[in-house]
Design brief:
The chain has 118 residues and is α+β, with helices and mostly antiparallel strands. The protein has a domain of 79 residues: Roll (2,3-Dihydroxybiphenyl 1,2-Dioxygenase, domain 1). Helices cover 19% and strands 21% of the residues. It has two helices and four strands. Strands 1-4-3-2 form a four-stranded mixed beta sheet, with helices on one face. It is globular, with a radius of gyration of 15 Å. It starts with 18 loop residues before the first helix and ends with a strand. 12% of the residues are buried.
Length: 118
């Protein structure tokens, strides 16, 4: 086995000050099934994009953070739902050249989430 090939993303974490509030937000926002307990495991979703198209990038910024990009069926409805659940809007929908339409929200603790129109 060679060590010079790209390594895949295999796990992510959301660190929360109020785990119950955050678990409720993500369960309701994205219909995630999340276990109770000190390590709240999240079941894998269905209908994810082609793994060959799953990419990421590193950007400069004023603070370190992790941004999740999550596919949704309706951007505007998802943005409204985020606000109802205690989140906020960071940016309105915009078209990525030759790509999807996306918007940015924040969860109740301020973590950024990209909403990607399916």
């Amino acid at each position: 086995m060679t060590e010079d090939w790209a390594r895949p993303v295999v796990h992510w974490e959301i660190i929360a000050k109020d785990q119950t509030k955050m678990r409720d937000f993500y369960a309701q926002m994205f219909n995630w099934k999340i276990a109770d307990g000190p390590i709240a495991l999240v079941d894998a979703g269905i209908g994810a994009p082609d793994p060959e198209q799953f990419t990421g990038h590193i950007l400069p910024g004023d603070a370190s953070r992790v941004v999740l990009d999550i596919q949704v069926l309706d951007l505007r409805a998802s943005m409204a739902k985020a606000e109802q659940l205690g989140g906020s809007i960071i940016s309105q929908p915009f078209d990525v050249p030759n790509g999807p339409t996306i918007a940015r929200i924040a969860d109740p603790e301020g973590n950024h989430i990209g909403l990607v129109q399916q």
